[in-house]
Amino acid sequence: MMTAIETDLLGALYATGSAIDAMRRRGGGAIVNIASISALRHGRKTPCGFAGYDVAKIGMIRMTTWLASLARTDGIRVNCLAPGWIGTDPVRK
Fold first, then answer.
1. Disulfide engineering: 64 pairs with which of 30, 32, 80, 81, CB 3.0-4.6 Å?
2. 20-74, pLDDT tens digit by residue?
């Protein structure tokens, strides 16, 4: 679980912090975070999902909403995409 959180959430958090610093120096920019609808499946009835991944992706959504004010203050737009399931072999099974 910790590996997913360290990679998918903390990695994105550190990269976003560096990007914000660079964008502030340039006068603005855009950040697009990637989450997943998996993080939004409260009370799911199927055994799919991985808690570490879901925690990381809901953290991405929350980080995006928290950083949205950068558009007003620094000219940095922050958005998040949350794609649905992708029909890979493990998902289809």
1. 80
2. 999 999 999 999 999 988 888 765 555 666 788 888 999 999 999 999 999 999 9
Taking the C-alpha atoms of residue 71 and residue 84, their distance in angstroms, rounded to an integer, is 27
Supply the DSSP symbol for 13.
H
Catalytic residue positions, numbered: 53
CATH code of the domain containing 69: 3.40.50.720
What is the number of structural domains in the chain? 1
pTM (2 decimals)?
0.80
Secondary structure class of 81 (helix, strand, coil):
strand
Two structure tokens written together for 82: 């949350």
Residue 47 belongs to domain spanning: 2-92
Task: At 30, list the tokens.
Answer: 């855009």
Q: Give the whole-angstrom CA distance, residue 84 versus residue 64.
A: 18
Smallest CA-to-CA distance from 90 within 58, 53, 56, 55 is with 53
